[in-house]
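Hi P.,

Sorry for the delay on this. The queue was packed all week, but I finally got your sequence through. Input first:
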Amino acid sequence: MIVFSAGNTRGRFSARLLFMLLTAVFFFGCGQKSFPVPPDRPAASAVGDLAHVVGEGRVKLSWSTPSCDDCISMVYRFRQPLSEPFCPSCPIPFTRVSEVPSELSGGKEKIVHMERIDAGYRYIFKVNIHSAGAPGPDSNLVKFDY
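Then the structure:
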């Protein structure tokens, strides 16, 4: 037990050492200390008008051109046999099937992606805009059975 008294030099030394250790832990604790830095660019906006047309064993997806110059539209697909039950509350395991840079839209107002589909499957598609390597929010989902 440490007793703090005027004549106890060992107790004063221990108290100073404890104070310095606690101060060091407080100021130099875990992690990097610096001011928060905002991201370089805001994330791209979400695609809100993803639409589809199914016909002749193909699906045609279309959406509005993103408003940024160096954006990439990532197309994601979920495919499941109709014989398997669909779990609406489970997370959907999407697979990326295409990347469309914004400069490939050719100045058109809509971007179009066509893909072959097989009969007997449930399909769900979504589009995500990536700007400066950072993904934006997901688009609306397009769901259909073929």
